[in-house]
Each structure stands twice: as structure tokens, then as C-alpha cells.
TrEMBL record:
<dbReference type="InterPro" id="IPR029058">
    <property type="entry name" value="AB_hydrolase_fold"/>
</dbReference>
<dbReference type="InterPro" id="IPR001031">
    <property type="entry name" value="Thioesterase"/>
</dbReference>
<feature type="domain" description="Thioesterase">
    <location>
        <begin position="20"/>
        <end position="244"/>
    </location>
</feature>
<dbReference type="InterPro" id="IPR012223">
    <property type="entry name" value="TEII"/>
</dbReference>
<dbReference type="GO" id="GO:0008610">
    <property type="term" value="P:lipid biosynthetic process"/>
</dbReference>
<protein>
    <submittedName>
        <fullName>Surfactin synthase thioesterase subunit</fullName>
    </submittedName>
</protein>
<dbReference type="Pfam" id="PF00975">
    <property type="entry name" value="Thioesterase"/>
</dbReference>
<comment type="similarity">
    <text>Belongs to the thioesterase family.</text>
</comment>
Amino acid sequence: MDETNKWLFQYHKKPDAAVRLICFHYAAGNASWFSTWEKYCGDDTELCAVQLPQRNRRRDEDMPDTIEELVEDFISDNQQLFDIPFIIFGHSMGAMIAYETAFRLKEKYGLDPELLVVSACGAPVYPEVQFTGQSILNASDDDIKLILNDYGQIESNLLDSQDFCDYYFPIVRSDFHVCEIYSRKPCAALDCGILVLRGSFDSKVSEEDCEAWKNYTSSECVIEKFVGGHFFPEDHTKEIVDLICEGIKSRKAVKNADR
């Protein structure tokens, strides 16, 4: 683990890397979700799994109130990550953070990723609302349990532990809250391609939601479907990393041909 950078989990710098893969985890998750990804990255790809505040070694830090504020903090603290070509990947909430990061880098620094990969997340046309008529900040613990059971990522016996709930539910509320107030109107602000990944059984993200990403770039937008639910990458890690790397190689070949 890189103890000098609170944002990065198990970061192994590759001095000769040609591209950097920056990954953002899902709501109420953590960067250890990407712990198996590095073995599928080639020698020329450096993995940077981003650890968000309020969990693990950052558990004493508050989650920012908005995704915009979170991204500003991340970019400000990590200018060095953008000194070589980079790809930004995000899953679910992480996809919103990934898009906002790409948007801010383009808007403020004129930087575009080689590729933006958004997984299990529709385009941010509208805020992602979990409840009708109330914020998740006001949801009861029983409501939170229903959400988590619906996503199917947390073992039910953990939800019976009060100690676990006392630690975990504030993270759930903070993460889902920044999602439910985040949106950006369609705009072709990005010049990079967007790769959209979706689980075939994911009831949270429709094909229409995925198609809407085409309105957020002036370049190509490709949609790929994998067998599985909302957390399909857990069963398709190698395929996804290979797909990302192949996408970069193809784009580089096109760029070279245009010269």
C-alpha cells in the first residue's frame, strides 16, 4: 500500500508504464474491490484504485457533500496521475465520479482520458433517486437494509450486526446522497471515447440509460453487455480489463493512421 497517498489503495508504481488505469469503486464499497485487477494489467498499464473518504484507513474523514467537491479534492491532490496517458474507470457511483473527473480535467486543464469506462451506471441526465419523496439521509435503518438486500452485495448476517450497521450505514447514506443530487445535462464536452458496460440482469440500469451516454462525448460510445447483475465485473474481471486494454490499442492504431 502506498502510505504517502491516502487516495490510492495498494498502489504499485510502474516507471515504464505507457498508460494509467484510474478506478473508482461503487457506493458504500471500497478500493479493495480492484485488488485482483492488477494481475490482468500488462506491464505497460499502471493500476490506480482510488480509496474514497469515510472508509478503511480514511474512516475518520467525512465524505464531501457533492461529487463535484469530491472530484475537485481528488484532482487537486493527484496532479501527478495525469502526467502520462490515462484511462478512467468507474462502477455505479464510481462511474459518476469517473465522468465528473473526466469533465473537470477537460474543462479546467484541457486534458482528456484515452478512454472513459462507465460500468453499471446510466448517463447522469437525472439524479439517481432511491426513494420517492425523501432523501436517503432521512431513510430509516430498515430502509437502508432493504436497499442493500436489493443490490445483493452484503451478506444478510452482517446486517444483523449492530456494530456493522453503526459503521456501515453512515457510509451508505453519504454515498447514496451524493448520487441522488448529482446530474449533468447532455453535452459533448468530452473528446474521448466512452465504453459503457452493463450487466444483462441489472435491474438498476436500463439499455436506454446506457444509450444516453452517447450524448456526452463528441467521439464514439460503445456499449458492451455482460451476463450478470449489478456487480457483474466480479465474474468478468479479466474480460473487462482485456476489453479496456484492447480498446486503447485500437484507438492508438487509429490515431497513428490519421497522422
